Amino acid sequence: MEERHKKILQRNRTNLVRDLDPSNLYDGLLEKGVFTQDMIDEIKGSGTRRDQARQLVRDLETRGSRAFPLFLLCLQETGQHSLAELLQNGAPTVHLQPATPTEVLRPVLQPLPVSSPMDVDKQRKELPVHPVQRPSTTPSPSPEREHIRPRPPGRQRRDSIQSYKMDASPCGHCLIINNVEFEPQSELSNRKGSNIDCDKLERRFKALNFIVEVKTNLKQRQIKRELSALSKEDHSQYDCCVVIMLSHGTEVSHNRFPGAVYGVDGQSVPVQHITNYLNGQHCPSLQGKPKLFFIQACGGGERDTGFEVSPDEVKPSVGGADDQTDAIPMSSSSDSLSMSDEPDARVTLPTPSDILVSYSTFPGYVSWRDTQSGSWYVETMDRILEENAATDDLVTMLMMVNHEVSQNSAKGLYKQMPGSFNFLRKLLYFQTQT
Question: N or C end of the chain, less CB within 10 A?
C-alpha cells in the first residue's frame, strides 16, 4: 500500500474502529482479492466487532497498492458511505483498472428421487450418477503479487496444505549477528570457527535471494538496537524475514521460547524477546508472513553422552579434538534482561503464528563447534539447504539436519540434538536458482 494511503488509515483509525462494520465487508474484500480466506478467518477470530475492525485496518496496510481504493469501493457497496467519504476526502481520486471478477462456484444440489422401498434396488442400478461440482477452497490472491509459486520439476504437488508465498524478489531481509570476540569482563571465551559459520550462512541466504546483513561482536544493547531497526523496516514488499544468532548461550526462565544468547559484554537477550521484535504488534508489515530464527548457541551446560543403539543405527563420528561448546551455566533469573529501557519492544507474548525457531541443540545441552570447520549444526544445515531447497520444504529439511547432527560425536563421546519450535501455518519453500 502506498504511504499516503497508510497515513490516511492511521489518521482515521479511531473513527474506523468505532464505526466500521467488518462483517458486511468480508465477502467483497475476499472476492476483490484484498484478503485471502485465511486472513479473513484470522480477523473474524480476533474478538469483538471493534477488535475485528482494528485488525482489519491493520492488515489492510500490509496489502498492495489496490487495497485502499478497493476498500473504499467495498465501503460504498455496503452502505458505509460516511466512512468512505471520510477516507476519500483525504485521498486524491484513484482510478482502478478493471480486474477480472472472481468466480464463486456454488455446489449443485441434485433432488433426491421419490420412490417406494420396492423400487430402491432397481433405481440403484438404473439411476445415472451426476458429479457434484464443489466450490474451490483455494484462497483468493492478494491485489498485486500473491500467486501460486511454480515448483521445480520433481517436487511432488501437495494439495493437503497450503504453501507460503515466497516469490518476492528479493525474498526478504536476513540479519546475521555473529559474536566471536568477547570482552574480558564477560568471562566468556572467544568463539573460534564462528566466522566460518557466518560466511557459509551469508552465502547460502544470498543464494536463496535474501538481503543479508552481517553484524559482528555486538553488546546486548546493540543486539536490541539492530533487532528494533529490523522491526521498523517496511517488509510489505517482501515475503519472509530471517534472524540468525551465532553466540554463546544459556538457559533462562521463559514463557514460550527457551534459551538466551549473549552479547560480547556478557549480558544476554532471551530468545522469546528476540522473536517479539518481529511479531504482529511490533512489525505489522510481517503479519501473516514467515519469520525464521536460527540459534547457534548452547541451550545450557549439560553434555549428552547418548544411549546405546543397534549397530545399523551407528554412523561414523565426525567430531574432532578441536570441538568446543557455546555453553554457559543457567541463569537463575532474567532480571538483567529487563527490556524496560528499550521502548521499541515491550515484553508481550501474543500467539506466535508464522514463527519458527530452530535451535542448534536441545534446551539445556551444549552445542558443539569445530574451530576449523565451524559448528556441526551450521555446517550440516548449509549442505542440506544446498542439496534439498529446490525440492523440500523447510521443516522437512530441518528434520534432515536433526538426523545428521544426531549421528555425530564429539571427542568420541558427546552427542548433540538440534530441534525447533514450529508455529508456521503452511509449508515454506525457499526460492532457488534454476
Answer: C
The C-alpha angle 360, 366, 367, rounded to 5 degrees, equals 35
Alpha carbons 383 and 73: distance in angstroms, whole number: 50
pLDDT tens per residue across span 30-87 = 888 888 888 888 888 877 888 888 888 888 888 888 888 898 899 989 999 889 888 8
What's the pLDDT tens digit per position in 195-247? 999 999 999 999 999 999 999 999 999 999 999 999 999 999 999 999 999 99
Cell output for 258: 527457551
Can you list the alpha helix ranges (DSSP code H) found in 164-219?
194-207
CA 167 to chain centre: 15
What's the CATH superfamily of 3-89?
Death Domain, Fas (1.10.533.10)
Identity of the amino acid at 402: N
Three-state secondary-structure class, residue 51: helix
And the C-alpha cell for 34?
Answer: 484484498
Neighbours of 133 (CB within 10 A): 10
Q: For residue 154, how many C-alpha atoms fall within 13 Å in the half-sphere facing its CB?
A: 7
Residue 163: exposure state from Cβ atoms within 10 A (0-12, 13-18, ≥19): middle
> What b/e string do you get for 335-366 counting C-beta neighbours within 10 Å, with b at 16 or more?
eebebeebeebeeeeeebebbbbbbbbbbbbb
Beta bridge partners of 327: 249
> Shortest CA distance to 270 belongs to which of 297, 303, 291, 233?
297
Cα gap 20→314, rounded to integer Å: 63
Q: Which residues pair with 176 in a beta bridge?
A: 214, 244
Q: How far apart are CA 299 and CA 331, in angstroms?
A: 11
Q: How many CA atoms lie within 13 A of 94 on its CB side?
A: 21
Residues with Cβ within 8 Å of residue 390, at least 6 apart in sequence: 152, 154, 155, 432
Rounded Cα distance, 158 and 68, in Å? 33
Q: Which one of 1.10.490.160, 3.40.50.2300, 3.40.50.1460, 1.10.10.10 gives the CATH number of domain 172-305+350-423?
A: 3.40.50.1460
C-alpha cell at 405: 547432527
Q: Active-site positions?
A: 248, 298
